[in-house]
Design a protein that fits this description.
Blueprint (H helix, E strand, L loop, with lengths): L3 H25 L12 H7 L5 H4 L5 H21 L16 H16 L3 E20 L2 E17 L5 E4 L5 E12 L8 E6 L1
Antiparallel strand pairs: 1-2, 2-3, 2-4, 4-5
Helix pairs in contact: 2-4
Length: about 200
């Protein structure tokens, strides 16, 4: 029995597999062992705002405010829409929340789940976002933002019957959120530390 053709087939297949592997690595990149966390659009925007004398002296100039508000708007939408998820894990918004706010949101989600209710939230958009105050407190910077947004929201029971809200009506929502950043921390994120509705 002649095995030479079988060996040639194996070598040929190995060459093809090697070629495909090299092509895939060139397209997809090489894993180095530490992949780190993928930056969200929110983080990229907020990373632009560095700790600087301008912020420390509370001279929050127009350019800094514009950069800040870009990230704040993304954070606002991310957190609002994440609150409608049924898994109660707040996965997308967790890096944006202080422990206090995360625990409050988580408690509200668990309460909703225990009642057999679930939320449907359609985020239409932000009408306006205005910096109300900005100040330095100890080693932290705090920025208070007034948001006006449009949202379609309703709460349904386990039978999908609406018990509050309206699944078709656009509602105008007014929120005041306070973001904070620890100037000594290497974490580039601003955290939502309080909400006033």
């Amino acid at each position: 029995m002649n095995y030479s053709f079988e060996y040639m087939d194996i070598i040929l297949l190995a060459m093809i597999a090697g070629f495909i592997f090299l092509r895939l690595r060139g397209i997809l990149g090489k894993k180095t062992g530490f992949e780190g966390k993928i930056s969200t659009q929110f983080e990229k925007e907020f990373e632009k705002i560095k700790i600087s004398p301008k912020l420390i002296n509370e001279n929050f100039d127009v350019e800094a405010q514009k950069d800040f508000l870009k990230g704040a708007k993304i954070a606002y939408e991310t957190i609002i829409t994440d609150f409608s998820d049924s898994d109660n894990k707040l996965i997308a918004s967790k890096p944006l929340l202080s422990k206090k706010i995360h625990d409050q949101f988580r408690e509200a989600l668990l309460d909703r789940e225990n009642k057999g209710h679930f939320a449907e939230i359609t985020f239409i958009g932000i009408k306006s976002a205005v910096i109300k105050t900005h100040k330095k407190i100890d080693n932290s910077l705090e920025v208070t933002v007034d948001f006006v947004s449009e949202i379609i929201t309703c709460i349904k029971d386990k039978d999908k019957k609406i018990i509050s809200g309206d699944s078709e009506k656009i509602k105008k929502v007014y929120d005041t959120w306070i973001f904070s950043k620890d100037m000594k921390s290497s974490n580039p994120n601003w955290l939502l530390i309080d909400t006033i509705t």
